[in-house]
non-specific serine/threonine protein kinase
Amino acid sequence: GPAPEQVGPHSFELLELLGRGSFGEVYRARHRQTRQSFAMKVLRKFRIRSSNLLRYTLTERNILAYVRHPYIVSLHHAFQTPSYLVLVLQFCPRGNLQQLINREGRLPQALARLGCRRAFLMVSGSLRKDTPVVDEIVAALGPLCAGVWDGMPAHTPREAVIDAAGKARQAGADVIVTLGGGSLTDGAKAVRIALAENVTDVAGLEPLHYQPGKRGSQIRSTPLIPQVTIPTTLSAGEFSPYAGVTDTAKKAAS
């Protein structure tokens, strides 16, 4: 039989720009033979190399090629040109997060069912800077949004936890909503503990961390405020009650 098609730029027709990010653009593209629509993520190689993120980009490609899950877009093709890395992904035609929330009202309704009135958002700094999604969530929450914080570095340092907890305390937060990866998810768990234990400085976190071979932390049974997590990575931190927080002085997680 005939050899399978070698998929490349010639295989697709670009229809419209869907969005821009730090490393490139996402287009709605149509396969010239099948007429099927896809989301084509076009990444500039020089930006990836200059940020030393090639390994992470390849990991993203490998994970998307392997995972099959109703909440994660599927990868159909991947190829490269001299200047670009291209991921051809499942196209989701029902609009963005703002449109979904406006249409179905799920996030505000979920917070209302929890009895919450002061939602404190802990969000990815890059998402807030490079996409409209954070503003869309804030607009959808309306008066339920008590504040937005986007200062979490990688590996969840204790100093950032204390800063976020202070902002959440000032805002009178009664629920934490996160939008980001594993560091942010873990950070929000630690913020909830800091709020419940009235911890206001880094030293106050020391008695609360788990120490192998010892009796464990000194966390009291004070009720924690709820946490609603919208993950953007495959860290799976939302499935665990534990929080990994970095002691920067010792350069160790706890």
Remarks:
- The first helix runs from residue 45 to 50.
- DSSP finds eight helices and eleven strands in the chain.
- The chain has two domains: 9-90, 97-239.
